[in-house]
Amino acid sequence: MDTTKIHLAEYYTTRRLIQLNLISGGSSLVSIIIGSSLMKFYTDIIGLSPAMYGVIFLIFSIWNGVNDIIIAYYSDRFPYHQKHGKYGRFIRWSVPVIAVTVIALLFVSPDWPEIIIAIYLLVMLLIYEAAKTLLDVSFNAFRINTFLTSHKRAKVAVIATYINMIPMFVGGMVPVWFLTGEFSRMTVVTFFTACILFGILLIYIGSRFVKEDPEFYKNMQVARSLRDITQLLVSLIKDKVFLLYGIGFLLVTTATGNYMSGYLYYMDNVLEVSELQATIPDILTGVVQIISLPFILKAIKKHGIKQTYIAGMLFAVIGHAALSLQTGYYFVSAMYLVILFGYGFGSALLPAWGGLLTDHIEISTGNRQPALISSLMAIVMIPAASFQPLILSTLLEVTNYNGAVKHQTAEVVNAIRLGTGIIPAAILLVGLIVLMFVPFGFQREHEITKHVQERHGLEENPVAVELA
Known about the structure:
The chain is an all-alpha fold. It has one domain: Growth Hormone, Chain: A. The protein contains 19 helices and 2 strands. Strands 1-2 form a two-stranded antiparallel sheet. Helix 14 (about 305-320) packs antiparallel against helix 18. It starts with a strand and ends with a strand.
């Protein structure tokens, strides 16, 4: 074992950042299976009604917000352990629970009574989301505390996006291919299970490269008692930056949080294509994002996070609005490329936004609680991500969608166009307008970063890490 004292910034070379972000890749793959496929799987293959699924998913999402607060509070409170670290242990603990519950979600029988299917779905989702929350808040807190500049945080996110391309390709291709084609239930379950196990393996490998700085946590103050938490919450409610940030991203997440569900219905029931034709646009969107990411990093250096993000996400507004038009396969495919080009700005810059918010709150309150802050945002963001499927499922229910057939009535087709088109476009545009008023200008970004670096004495505190 070669252990020496260096700065974590030196330890995390590009190669190690790639290895570390296998966590993100595996987590994304599992999330895609749940977020984009579960609704179509349960309505078309298992036979659960869209209305029942929408209610279950909303209950699960609301509980998830409460669950996030509890898990994040205790993960922030746990002290740094010399052997297991602070957040790294939680990342490792979450892996087996995620594996068991997600796979269990697939092994449900369409012969069960609908109420039993609904209860089973809800219970498995609650257990899964608790473990997934532990993974997400811990990994997010680790990244925020390890990488402090906006450009470094964006670079980590960009590398994560590149790493995510393979699992996202698999996670996007498999649902589209198997849920728009004619395959048996066990065939679908087999391929989905293989995807999930692959994702779990990636998370496990990435967790081996989590290294934390004990010196950083010596200078970290957290709210420990109920009184401390109450005071922190009161200060956040009064904080203009926090409120604008929260409202803005609430609207953005409402519009963009689960686009893949709508994509499946659009391809299957509006364009009436399947398998390869339905998969090609999803593949090409990944290519577009790969090309755009280096330019996003350059734009951050010149214009900062806020301006770069808003400008990029306007492409998604245009793309969504165009989906409401009565057009054909090639135009729709092009619009999905435009939408995912805009989403690429979100995937690259959202971690930097969250890190900057954590830094701002530490400056204003004295407390640094990345997991708790992330979970507070998740209280509104995760239910918000359920609104698009809820809106879509409501539209489908009202227009009498029939999951047993590919060809739908004109009313259903128009409902899908609205639910994936002008409705999310309008919500997203309003969210971007709100974010324009968040005072994270280019100069302010640098001032916040400098303050946090000085507070934690990073230039003077190298950390012992294993360089094997």
